[in-house]
Amino acid sequence: MSMIERFGHGGDVWTAADTFGVSSEAFLDFSANINPLGPPPVVAERLQQALEGIVHYPDPGHRKMKAALSARLQVPQERIGIGNGAAECMALLLLAFQPRVVGVIAPCFSEYETLSRQFGADVVTVVGQEEAGFQATEEQLYQLMLETDLVFIGHPNNPTGIVYDRERLERAARMAEKTNTLLAVDEAFIDFLPQEEKVSLLPVQHQYKQLIIIRSLTKFYAIPGLRLGYAVAHPELIAAMSAKQVTWSVNGLALAAGEALLTDKHYDDYVRATRELIVTERTWLRERLASLGIKTWPSEANFLLCRAPALWTAKRLQEELGRRGILIRNCDMYTGLKAGDFRIAIKNRTLNEHLAVSVQAVLH
């Protein structure tokens, strides 16, 4: 594992600062997949008002937040659980149901395996087919469900950005019912997709008792420092997860920010602007990187999985860019990927151009 990813994730500008001698504030961070538009303005306004409330405990029932989410998603409140980031929702799932064996499809978000092992589960890994964007075949999925108590699927997957066909995921959900396996579909990045409603399992989640949808509010709304996520599932599953949650694990400022952005009158405009920016800039960046000899996979999210040209490793490219104050995500720690594989977030044109020019200078 690269020293920059010593904690298993991107966005560690502090380790990068120690390594490259650049201040953490000065780094141009392409290693964390955060909305380049920044938080909606209503978030800062609401946080300013909410500061007076830090003398009080946050609502342990997350009632206003649940009501706002329920209205936004058109999902009953008893099917919603709020967490201190999507990662806590995953942890609560593991705590509540204590699976002995967890299945993952590599390459994938490292917390699936890390959390599973932390909570005492064994992990079975299947590697998706590279030519299919590292997606698992239906045969692999079915076998995985036969061998495990819980399966995680990223949708879009991190670090590939690949999206499964919804009918295929519904078949997986039906498999889960037959094998009595819990199916956790991680939709942390699905808000970035213009076709979200056509690919998300949210509209059909009520049909599958073994299905848990996990989502994040921190990536799309650019508030990772606040930590806010949620799970949608059958009320019995949500109740079991909530029973394992530490009281007040979701702080009052995070709840206030969540309520504000979900009820913001400019919500639709922010969503539309974000999606348009990501589609435009992702297309531009893929073409620019291809001209530099860098392969990219057809991501539908706000990041790209890339492969450096021959003779280059991601670690070396990360070091060269790091000295220039640019941080990329070395992906050599991911099962199924190669030493030259790295991930970059999509930002605005000015910053994307800066990255491309810097990569060109390093490679040539």
Automatic annotation (TrEMBL):
Presence of the UniProt keyword Lyase in the record: yes
Pathway: Cofactor biosynthesis; adenosylcobalamin biosynthesis
Family annotation (InterPro entries): Aminotransferase_I/II_large, CobD, NHTrfase_class1_PyrdxlP-BS, PyrdxlP-dep_Trfase, PyrdxlP-dep_Trfase_major, PyrdxlP-dep_Trfase_small
SUPFAM superfamilies: PLP-dependent transferases
Short name of one Pfam family: Aminotran_1_2
Reaction it catalyzes: O-phospho-L-threonine + H(+) = (R)-1-aminopropan-2-yl phosphate + CO2
Keyword Lyase among UniProt keywords: yes
UniProt-recorded Gene Ontology molecular function terms: threonine-phosphate decarboxylase activity
Domain Aminotransferase class I/classII large: 28-356
The protein's Enzyme Commission number: 4.1.1.81
CDD domains: AAT_like
Function: Decarboxylates L-threonine-O-3-phosphate to yield (R)-1-amino-2-propanol O-2-phosphate, the precursor for the linkage between the nucleotide loop and the corrin ring in cobalamin.
Protein name: threonine-phosphate decarboxylase
Lineage: Bacteria, Bacillati, Bacillota, Bacilli, Bacillales
